[in-house]
Design goal:
The protein is of the alpha/beta class. The protein has two domains: about 180 residues, Response regulator (Rossmann fold, 3-Layer(aba) Sandwich); about 170 residues, Rossmann fold. Helix content is about 45%, strand content about 20%. The chain is built from 13 helices and 15 strands. It is elongated. About 35% of the residues are buried.
């Protein structure tokens, strides 16, 4: 009899164990991660994986399960890996990283992808851009313009692959009294275009005409007036108070230098640009200062970089921080919503505070509430 009781007890124990394992598996928060584990972008993929593991450790909840697949930085490999994730029960995926990898993802149903890209045009219906998009940046710039009661603004946009993206975001924004100008980044064409926009030749001719007039006149104190005018490059105002330059790095510096050459100074007009990710080269370029731009929370970014370096002996980039925050975002949604209902998961209006700043979710879009910074006198200053 005792022998049968032992066997029965063992069977019940096994059944309970299997049941608990099944319940535990069903309660898991499965998050797919599609990043390049092979190819030229392998290092970036490795950094993202490390950041995601940091987030898991900080959340400290064993219900979260990260399932990693290689996107290979190409659409065919991305599609194959996404199908493999679906087969093991994943319906929310972080990634892919690059816009070109998204091409075939609309073939997969009942899955949603939080891509690291900041582009929002022509995305598959099941892909949400989670990067710091142009809408978030322009909304932040608009806030600064309103706070400073800036009346007339021009927006300079290069003829590059994100031109349509910027124009779409401007149209959606609250920017008022704004004129948009496109320009070619080739140096000679750029200089000519900036001269046209700023009426440089007319203002230069105005100066020459005024000096000639004074020389012929009998006006009192004309010598002093002429001497002062000869120190100038132009005479006359430009028809704007602020310039938003939709460019980056050396190309941005070329535009700003062309403006200086056309006698438009950042000390007299607001020079505003897009998120420069705290590019240190702008700190040393005093001739281009002050210059303003929106970006993420720098203090948190620096703290994240220090923590990442301490754990992995290397410094991360901003995509690593984004991946860290996205794990927290999905975990937050698991507490407030039904993750299996992916059709409505990102439609409902909600907000999440991450390391980068606040993520605003609505109508299958993610926007960021950004900070605003000024570079002046070789210092980075937070405005809001």
């Amino acid at each position: 009899m005792k022998k049968y009781l032992k066997i029965l007890t063992l069977i019940l124990f096994c059944l309970c164990f299997i049941f608990n394992q099944k319940v535990s598996a069903e309660n898991k928060i499965k998050i797919g991660l599609l990043v390049p584990n092979t190819g030229e972008n392998k290092k970036l993929g490795e950094q993202i994986i490390k950041s995601v593991r940091m987030a898991i450790n900080d959340i400290d909840n064993n219900k979260i399960e990260i399932l990693i697949k290689d996107s290979g930085s190409n659409p065919d490999k991305t599609l194959q890996s996404a199908e493999e994730l679906k087969d093991i029960g994943v319906n929310i995926v972080l990634g892919p990283v690059f816009i070109k990898s998204l091409e075939y993802l609309d073939q997969i149903e009942d899955m949603i992808f939080l891509s690291f890209t900041n582009q929002t045009i022509n995305l598959p219906k099941n892909v949400i851009s989670s990067g710091v998009n142009s809408t978030s940046q322009i909304n932040t710039i608009s806030k600064f313009i309103d706070q400073n009661k800036i009346d007339k603004t021009i927006f300079l946009i290069p003829k590059l692959n994100y031109e349509a993206e910027l124009k779409k975001s401007i149209k959606k924004s609250k920017l008022k009294k704004i004129k948009i100008y496109s320009y070619d980044t080739e140096p000679t064409k750029l200089t000519k275009r900036i001269e046209e926009i700023t009426n440089y030749q007319i203002r230069k001719r105005n100066l020459e005409d005024e000096i000639r007039r004074l020389k012929k006149s009998e006006e009192p104190g004309k010598e002093k007036k002429i001497a002062n005018l000869e120190k100038r490059y132009t005479l006359g105002r430009v028809n704007f108070d602020a310039i938003i330059i939709g460019d980056f790095d050396e190309s941005l510096k070329s535009v700003a230098t062309s403006l200086l050459y056309s006698d438009v100074s950042p000390k007299k007009k607001y020079f505003i640009t897009l998120n420069q990710w705290f590019n240190r080269s702008f700190i040393v370029e005093e001739s281009l200062q002050p210059i303003y731009y929106p970006s993420i929370d720098k203090k948190n970014f620096e703290l994240f970089k220090k923590k990442f370096f301490k754990e992995f002996d290397e410094y991360p980039d901003h995509i690593s921080l984004l991946s860290y925050d996205l794990v927290g975002l999905v975990y937050y949604l698991s507490l407030t919503s039904n993750l299996s209902n992916i059709d409505n998961l990102f439609k409902k209006e909600s907000s999440f505070k991450g390391k980068m700043g606040i993520f605003d979710i609505k109508n299958n879009e993610i926007n960021h509430r950004l900070n605003f910074y000024k570079v002046e006198n070789k210092k980075l200053i937070k405005i809001f």
